[in-house]
Amino acid sequence: MHLATSRSALLGGLHSCRAARFVGAQVKAGHTQAAPRVGGAGCPARGVATRAGAGSEAETESGYWTLQSYVLYESEVKKSKFIVHAWPVSSPAEAMDLIKGASDPSASHNCFAYRIGDEFRSSDDGEPGGTAGKPIQTAIDGEGLDRVAVLVTRFFGGVKLGAGGLVRAYGGAAQECLKLAPRVFAKAQVEVVVEASYDELGTIYSCLDMHACMRLAEDYGSSGTVSIRALVDADKLNSLKAAVADGTRGKRTAVPAAEAAAAGTGA
Description:
One of its GO terms (cellular component) is cytoplasm. With 267 residues, the protein is of the alpha+beta class. The chain is built from seven helices and 14 strands.
């Protein structure tokens, strides 16, 4: 058991593909050990590492389960090698950049799927329709994960698998990878806009700090007001609104950015 540290090391050791290899987590005897997050792609929301498989458990707070870090997994089915790359992602553009960057032009097929909230996409990349991309998508959704992209690269081994065999091979490799991968629970967050006068800034900053908000930007207008954009945990939004209103005697509130944009304010 060892970590694949480079693409050449990965491809050079394909003869032992039945052993799982991970970057970002070590897997031994059916359990996982959390590892520091690998730089690059990822989901910025906060979370707490937990055991693999916890994504199916009911949660009392608003949020979603995603991968803790990039994961690499390998398997072999009837001499065909399947290499799985899985990432936590924050946007479709990020997902596609990672998938394109990791796709191997020398491979038989580079099939993928991603799930980012209500947005999802999959590709069979030349395999019979519905035998690769969809099973990968089903694996992501079946594990209860969000903000995740999975690429499964196949090196044909000379034995045809048939439609059913392809579904099992692609879906099984993706599912096994995701089952073993360490996860985090990320709280859902809302971007808000708060308009304030200069003399109200101290009060607004205090309210934001008390609710553990992340300040994103400040726009100082010519009329003596400041538009502050910040991220707040979704379950703290109502409390933040009340605190801002109380602190400014009802003059101000925290408005979700989408509502502010629709109303033509705070943009």
